[in-house]
Specification:
Layout lengths: L3 H5 L21 E3 L1 H7 L2 E6 L9 H14 L5 E4 L3 H13 L3 E6 L5 H9 L3 E5 L3 H13 L4 E2 L5 H7 L1 H10 L5 E5 L4 H13 L5 E7 L18 H11 L2 E5 L1 H15 L9 H8 L6 E6 L7 H7 L10 H8 L1
Parallel strand pairs: 2-10, 3-4, 3-6, 4-5, 7-8, 7-10, 8-9
Antiparallel strand pairs: 1-2
Helix pairs in contact: 3-4, 3-7, 4-5, 7-9, 8-9, 9-10, 11-12
C-alpha cells in the first residue's frame, strides 16, 4: 500500500527529492456503526485512526514533519507530549536514524504510550510541571538549533493530518454533514478544516469535544489546560456552524465502553470524546463521522479499572455455565 505522502504528495510541502520517512501510515478504515447509528438516529461512521502504525492519528503529521526535518538536515527531534505525540515522534525518529527528546508532565501520561516511546529509544524526561510548561521547554530547546520541534506547532504536522479529511471525502464520495473529534490542543481540528477547505467541498459541521475538567480528566490524551491552537481551532468550528462541547469523564467513559461493546472498536478514552459530544445533541438524519483518534492499548490501566474484573472458576463445564448464567 502506498504511504500517506506518496498518495497525497502533490498536496504536501515536502522539498523536491526529499526522502520519505514512513511506517505505512494513513488509509485507515472508515467503518459504519449500525448500533450507534440507531441510537443517534443518523448514519454514523467511525474513522479508526488507531490503525495507524503507532496507534494514533499523530503518525499522519509525523511522517511529513520528520521527512521535512530530515531533508533540512535535522540532527534530532524534540516534543512535549501527553503520550501519543511522544510515541509517534520516537518511532519516526528511530525510522529516520536520529534521536528524539520527549518531555512529558510527570505522572500524567498513560503507561502504554510511555512504553512505546521508551521501546523506540527516545530520551524521555519527566517535567515537574504541566503540559504547557513542558511545551515551553521543548520550544526553548528547539530554538537552540540542534532539535526540530515536532509538536503540532510545527506546520508540517497539520499538513500531514489534513489528509484524514481528504480520505473521508474519498471514502464517502462527499463531505460528511458532521465530523466529531476530540479537541485536545486543537491542532487536529485545524487540520481537518484545512483538508476540507483545500478539497473545495465545503466544511462539515465540526463538533470538537473537550473534557469538562481539562487539567484532571481521565482522558489523558486531551489533558491540555491551555490549547495552543485554541483561537484557530475555535474559529474553524464557528465557521463550520459547529460547536465546542464540554463532556464529563463519566460521559467519555460511557462512550468509550460502548464503542467497544457495541461496535467492537477498543479506543483510548479520549478518542471517545467525540461520541460523547454527539450524544448531547444527536444529529438526526445526518451523515456523521466520529474520529476515534487512538487505540485502547495506549491506556490499558483505564481499561483494567473501568471493566468488570475476571471471575475465577474451576476448569469444569458446570462451573463455567453457572458463572456465565
Amino acid at each position: 500500500m502506498a504511504s500517506l505522502v506518496e498518495r497525497f504528495r502533490d498536496r504536501l510541502p515536502l522539498p523536491q527529492g526529499a526522502a520519505v520517512v514512513s511506517l505505512g501510515e494513513g488509509s485507515t478504515p472508515l467503518l459504519p456503526a449500525p448500533r450507534l447509528s440507531e441510537e443517534l438516529g443518523c448514519a454514523l461512521f467511525l474513522k479508526w485512526e488507531g490503525a495507524n502504525p503507532t496507534g494514533s492519528f499523530k503518525d499522519r503529521g509525523m511522517t511529513v514533519a520528520v521527512s521535512c526535518a530530515l531533508a533540512r538536515g535535522a540532527r534530532g527531534l524534540v516534543c512535549a507530549s501527553t503520550g501519543n505525540t511522544a510515541a509517534s515522534a520516537a518511532a519516526y525518529a528511530a525510522r529516520a536514524g536520529i534521536p528524539a527528546v520527549v518531555l512529558q508532565p510527570a505522572g500524567a501520561v498513560a503507561i502504554g504510550k510511555v512504553a512505546q516511546a521508551l521501546a523506540a529509544g527516545a530520551r524521555l524526561l519527566e517535567v515537574r510541571g504541566s503540559f504547557d510548561q513542558a511545551l515551553d521547554a521543548a520550544r526553548g530547546l528547539a530554538e537552540r538549533g540542534d532539535h526540530v520541534l515536532v509538536n503540532s506547532l510545527n506546520p508540517h504536522r497539520l499538513e500531514g493530518q489534513k489528509t484524514a479529511a481528504l480520505e473521508l471525502i474519498e471514502e464517502l464520495g462527499r463531505t460528511p454533514d458532521v465530523v466529531a473529534l476530540p479537541y485536545g490542543g486543537g491542532g487536529n481540528t485545524r487540520a481537518y478544516a484545512l483538508g476540507f477547505d483545500e478539497a473545495g467541498t465545503g466544511l462539515p459541521r465540526i463538533v470538537a469535544a473537550q473534557a469538562a475538567a481539562r487539567a484532571e480528566t481521565v482522558a489523558t490524551a486531551i489533558r491540555i489546560p491551555q490549547p495552543p491552537h485554541r483561537a484557530e481551532a475555535e474559529a474553524a468550528v464557528a465557521r463550520s456552524g459547529g460547536a465546542v462541547v464540554s463532556v464529563s469523564d463519566d460521559a467519555v467513559l460511557a462512550a468509550w465502553r460502548d464503542a467497544a461493546r457495541l461496535e467492537g472498536l477498543f479506543c483510548e478514552p479520549a478518542s471517545a470524546a467525540g461520541l460523547a459530544a454527539l450524544r448531547r445533541d444527536p444529529p438526526r438524519g445526518a451523515t456523521v463521522v466520529c474520529v476515534l483518534t487512538g487505540h485502547g492499548l495506549k491506556d490499558p490501566e483505564t481499561a483494567r479499572r473501568a471493566a468488570r474484573p475476571p471471575v475465577t472458576v474451576e476448569p469444569d463445564a458446570d462451573a463455567i455455565a453457572a458463572a456465565v448464567a
